[in-house]
Amino acid sequence: MTTELLLHNCSVVDATRTEALTGAAVWISGNTIAAVGTEREVRDALGNRRHRVMDLGGRFVSPGLINMHTHLSLSLPGPRGAEVKAMSAPQLVLHMADGAARTLQCGVTTIRCVGEKDHADFPLKASIESGKLRGPRMFTAGRPICCTGGHGHGSSGGLECDGETGFRQGVRQQIRAGADFIKVMISGGISGQHEKIDTRQVTRGELEAAISTAHEWGRKITAHAGPAPVIAEAVELGLDCVEHGYELTDEVTAAMAEKGCALVPTLVVTRCKSFFDELGVPEWMQQRSLGAGERHMQSFRSAVDAGVTVMLGSDMPPFWDFEGTSAAVRELEHMSDGALGPKAALAAATIVPAQWLRADDKLGTVETGKYADLIVTEGDPSLDTATYRSLSVVVKDGVVVRDDLSAVFEPQDAPA
Ligand SMILES: [Zn+2]
To answer: Which of 247, 288, 371, 388 registers the highest number of CB atoms within 10 A of its CB?
Structure first.
């Protein structure tokens, strides 16, 4: 039987509205938003159907967050990462399922997994989709593709490929396993002691092979990338998204804007000393990360100024308790404060990623016909990004998976 839920006494806000709709209500039927509007309009639409009511006390309803850069099987250098690396396959899946459940509790209702170990992401995704496990919607790349010894090899499950044939095969293997999109490492990064952020790690032929194979199979492709020259080449060849972009230039951000290549800046990864300390991340990596922070922010600002599509992505586990909130919210605050402002930050965490994922018919706004993936905050997130810190309710697929307002449910009979 379909369950009917009325969220009332609230304001509704999303990135497509010029301002929040006050005095609003949302009717959720099953997993879908059945009506949204003024209290009167929604109650009229609901008619005399039996339903439950949740009084939101004047709070704001907005779309669930979409985090475009996650690794549920993340294992950074240091003792905590070594524990993850040592896990058996069953242990790893349970560890990832725990991370998925925690992520959902933080209001992140969709994640894009940009590189997981051992294809453990696929059964996890299937279990969430079938309702056996609670977690965010998952769009996943399977294993990230890198060159021999390239960024993320071994430790993060990177699949080592070489040559054009190797890269084509690597892409096809991920698609065969169920990949929604492809992730390729095209330069060094922060977490490899044997490489530098600006170490180029693909030939032009390998880049071309990876990008064209992904596109032939109808998949988008994103690249872990730091330095501008190799990014410029990848953008020219049709790359769909850049991760991190630690060292972008105005020339390359102009090219990204022109070609429609998005950026997921992951700003927290160069400003998260306490997180690294908790994991026991070694000194060399901490120095490299924190030392890149200023240049990283410059890159992000250049991208925003050029009109590049930018999207929320934490890289850190989205649920990590970090500087008084979750890593996902802290990342969005950096994006908002650094260049975007709250309205564009809201878009970068909701409708814009939904569009990149080609899922904006079902995700990213509070509209009739979309999945009921919603969160509740004290204030209006289009005016103040920090209000995400006051998250109290999370709804995914029409199910209330977090409710800090407590005991606001009451069965209500239909009016006579
Ligand atoms: Zn990453």
So the answer is: 388
The CA distance from 62 to 96, in Å, is: 27
**Is 0.85 topped by the overall pTM?**
yes
Which tens digits make up the pLDDT trace of 365-398?
A: 999 999 999 999 999 999 999 999 999 999 999 9
Among 83, 195, 81, CA closest to 146:
195
**How far away, in angstroms, is 195 Cα from ligand 1 center?**
16
Q: How far apart are CA 213 and CA 218, in angstroms?
A: 9
Pairing between strand 393-396 and 399-403?
Answer: antiparallel
State in Å: Cα 363 to ligand 1 middle: 23
Which residue ranges form the domains of the chain, and what is each CATH number?
4-63+364-413 (2.30.40.10), 65-356 (3.20.20.140)
Q: At what angle do helices 228-236 and 204-216 cross, to 10 degrees?
A: 40
Q: Using the mean position of ligand 1's atoms as its centre, give its distance from the Cα of residue 293 in Å.
A: 16
Q: How far is the CA of 71 from the centre of ligand 1 (A)?
A: 6
- Ligand 1 centre to CA of 155 (Å) is 12
